Amino acid sequence: MIVVMRVGTPEAELERVCEELSTTFGVSPERIVGKHKTVIGLVGDTAELDNMQLKEFSPWVEQVLRVEQPFKKASLEYRNGEYSEVWVNTPDGKVAIGKHHPISVVAGPCSVENEEMIIATAKRVKAAGAKFLRGGAYKPRTSPYAFQGHGESALDLLAAAREATGLGIITEVMDAADLDKIVEVADVVQVGARNMQNFSLLKKVGAQEKPVLLKRGMAATIEDWLMAAEYILAAGNPNVILCERGIRTFDRQYARNTLDLACIPVLRQLTHLPIMIDPSHGTGKWEYVPAMALAAIAAGTDSLMIEVHPAPAKALSDGPQSLNPEKFDRLMGELGVIGRAVGRWEIPQPAAALV
Ligand code: PEP
Ligand code: MN
Which of 92, 187, 193, 343 could form a disulfide with 168 if both were Cys (CB 3.0 to 4.6 A apart)? Predict the structure, then answer.
């Protein structure tokens, strides 16, 4: 349920209304300060609350609306139609991800393999215009015999790459026991597709302060996904980015997954949360990545995640879907054409694309 307050409601009145709502009805009010209006979001047992009663609470109450969706804080209604932005602190400064901001590109290898490769990749993707370096220290692999990531030592390498380039770091948490170590290095904590409904992990990432990148489970409906985001929001962390990375459908012969680009307009109607598209896991083949990345920008994504490896043929994980740095440079040049056409590109044309 949301209580929309009139423009110019005095601060003391906002405080009084919040205080009274929590003492009288035992619900927890959350103040959402929008560009024009302040909305008070109420979550908890609101079934008994009646709209008229709430309207009489203060002459400054403009409207009282019920959020009909099962996801409350994640819904667009909860913010009265205003899209949220996630601000990420990176060594190079704050970067905003959201509908009203330039597109941010996250790039890097699937796994952090060694110091030389992660630093070299970080420098290349930074020069091409990426704002974030991705790289797994803890890898969720289908086979227990496959490379599982270097763990803690890879976190140190990510920290070194952050220091060397100024890029923000995005890396995955698989086990809540590693969360404290991860948040020391990561600027955004990734919850992978396989953990999208690991509710105890969601509560823990929701209880810490770094923004969370929530990948869509490979068999998750959009509602499952938004309910997973709700866990993080309900635990107190408002900074969630949704990442589509392909879902399982009946045809896996040619593409690893089916990248659901239709989720972009769907999510825009349902949620205020920012959107990222990952065409690398979404297709499983580097040859298909550029077309889907271009389409994602045209369809309105707020950010992209692209796997880049200095020598994909030798990669310890996801080589077939990784671009080499030259191909990534070229792709960034192409993305700029669409990005500028939709007015959301502030990355200078990379030198490689100009020749
Ligand atoms: C990854 O980003 O490397 C990864 C494992 O992604 P997903 O959880 O989408 O499979
Ligand atoms: Mn990968």
Answer: 187
